[in-house]
Design brief:
Immunoglobulin-like, eight-stranded antiparallel sheet, 8 helices
Length: about 450
Amino acid sequence: MHYLSENYTIIHQPLGVCNDFATFFSVNLLFITNILPKFAIISPETLKSTMHKDTLLIIKAAAIAAMASAISACSDNGAGAIIVTNDSPSDRADEIVELSPAPEILSDTATVYVIADAAGQPVTFQITHDGALIFPASVKAGQSATYNIIKRTDLNEDLLKSSMAMTEASNIAYTVRPDCQDDFAWENEHSGYRLYGPSFKKGGGKVHGYDIWCKRGPAPIVDRFYNLDHGPEKITYHKDHGEGFDGYTVGPTLGAGANALMLDSAICYPTAYDSYEVLDNGPLRLTVRFTVDSIPFGNDASGAQRYITETRTLSLDRLSHFNKVSTIYDGVDSPTPIVAGIVVHADKPDGYTLIPDADAISVIDLSDDTSVDNGEIYVGAIVPGADTLRYAAFDEVKANAVGQALASSTYTPGVPFVYYWGSGWSKGSVPDSARWQSIISARKQAIDAPLKASLKK
């Protein structure tokens, strides 16, 4: 392939079949003006003249035509194409879509493939532990978009570097801290989270739910915060020093959205995890399987305390405000009420909202130190098909908690209970409560009408 320089000397540029012209057209207008004469779309004399509105429209049309030609060539000569369909009434941008099973060609170890959008730009993809392909897709409401599978060697040098950089970069991260009661902490661009570990439970700890790390920016911070707090610097992560902090109080509650079975109208609180297994570790999705043992669950026939075990699979995607939880219990033999809950603190007792249209609960929290302006922490949980949404007040204040917002459902033995929970911060990526409500609504819409991916035949 060749292009013309400003003085129309031919410059040779080797390109693979899927190197789309769109990338080059987007570089600068001068480049377009040098290419177009080669294709005899418009004369050099016209291009040298003052570019008025009509001329720019001609250039734009030519660029689109050339881009479409390149995309067509890529689809015809590439390794396959994936069609992503959006059946919802809203545009979906940069949303993780799943194709299961993943195309076999992507498991070819002899050739490295990439996935590119219709403009030829590579997108990050990941093969999950259960054999699914996931990647971010953007699709207009009621429309479809095509993503092409192509050989990495068919990319030009700039796109090749872009593809490699995306593969290596990830804001999904986790850390396990034996020096801090076996905390398991994880994060993405928006928030970080924590689940307490076995040594916490053995030490008599009674914190039952999820904790939150507030973040101002997308880069991973949680492991470094632990190091600063527990290292010689002794810089506490409970204060915001400019990047974020742990300013959320869980206490003897469900915290930021934990789940629990109910027996005789009482919540059977789990306490910390006993073991974990990381199933997926980015760049797009973190998946962890936790085992939670010794959950009190009434008495057996002899009157002795009965215990059950929970196997909880949690995943967090890039750019998502919500974790997905799929949990199953061993030792439960009949349908049982189950809840997902969020603590409500005394500093803002009216901060909860019940959202029936989204099967969701939402709470605004003012952080555990209201003497300084720490902004607002937004917490939400979505339980698809929830039976009821309600607020349950405590008989007395517990660790500054006055009650919990609860979304109730029914757990059927052997069938995973699936729900979603997450958070945002007013000094981070969620500026206000109105934005948080819209995030909840958009997530529920994505749950009800997920993007659909299929291989083009």
